[in-house]
Amino acid sequence: MKKSDKRELSLAGNSLAELNHCIIRCRKCPRLVAWREQVAQEKRAAYREEEYWGRPLIGFGDVRARVLVCGLAPAAHGGNRTGRIFTGDRSGDWLYGALHRAGFANQPVSIHRNDGLRLRDCYVTACVRCAPPANRPTPEERDNCLVYLAEELRILTHVQVIVCLGAFAWDGALRALRALGWVARPRPGFGHQAEAAVGPYRLLGSYHPSQQNTFTGKLTRPMLDAVMAQARTLAQG
Predict the structure, then answer these.
(1) Percentage of the chain exceeding pLDDT 90
(2) Is 37 helix (H, G, I), strand (E, B) or coil?
């Protein structure tokens, strides 16, 4: 965590509400700011009547959650449009469907940020808070943003299990935990249903529910359900 990041967050205070206010105002990464705002202005034809969010995304869910689910970044026409993480795209359909089947969500779909979705014992977030071009943030953009994940983990004191959706989130979670003083040695490798103990946390890996994985069968609904069931068991253990 850079000194400038620490100074910025110290000014933001110690509550989740204050952290979220800081996230929404963030303009650290010029490329990401330009892209998220360009997408919000040009829009996709199917959503041309909608007002896009076009800003960084905060996390979403139960502030007393024992399970935190971490993804890569918002989708340009998903979270960047709707204003809620994993909402309004195919990846979100898969994720919230699995959370509902596991008892973490009150409904299986997430369409927009005022659709009544509530999470129980689960909090959903991402390593990078702005939609990146081609869904590929740079290492510098990743590092700029990981301070927010670290602060979420510091504030959400009930979290025991971190479900990492993809290798990028696995790496990001390890980096955020290192910023908090928790280091795993040797460094655990990512894999579907891989587990690792890092300080007081259990990391749990899952393939990301992107169309690249779900359309090819690399990730199936039973596979994702198994990860969520595993997360519940670990959190209750």
Answers:
(1) 93
(2) helix
Per residue in 7-30, pLDDT tens? 455 444 579 999 999 999 999 999
Question: pTM of the prediction?
Answer: 0.94
In whole numbers, what is the pLDDT of the chain averaged over residues? 94
3-state helix, strand, coil in the chain (%, to 5): 45, 10, 45
Give residue 2's pLDDT: 55
Rounded CA gap, 2 and 8, in Å? 10
What is the residue range of 19's domain? Answer: 3-236
Tell me 34's DSSP state.
Answer: H
Work out whether strand 195-198 and strand 122-126 pair parallel, antiparallel, or are unpaired.
Answer: unpaired
Q: How many CB atoms lie within 10 A of CB 144?
A: 21
What is the token pair recorded at 186? 């040797």
* Cβ density class 191-217: b for 16+ within 10 Å, e for less: ebeeebebeebbbbbbbbbbeebbeee
Number of structural domains the chain divides into: 1
- Mean pLDDT of all residues in 207-215: 96
Both tokens assigned to 190? 């990512």
Percent of the chain having pLDDT more than 70? 95
Cα dist from 161 to 29, 34, 141, 219, whole Å: 29, 34, 25, 21
Residue 137's domain is classified under what CATH number?
Answer: 3.40.470.10
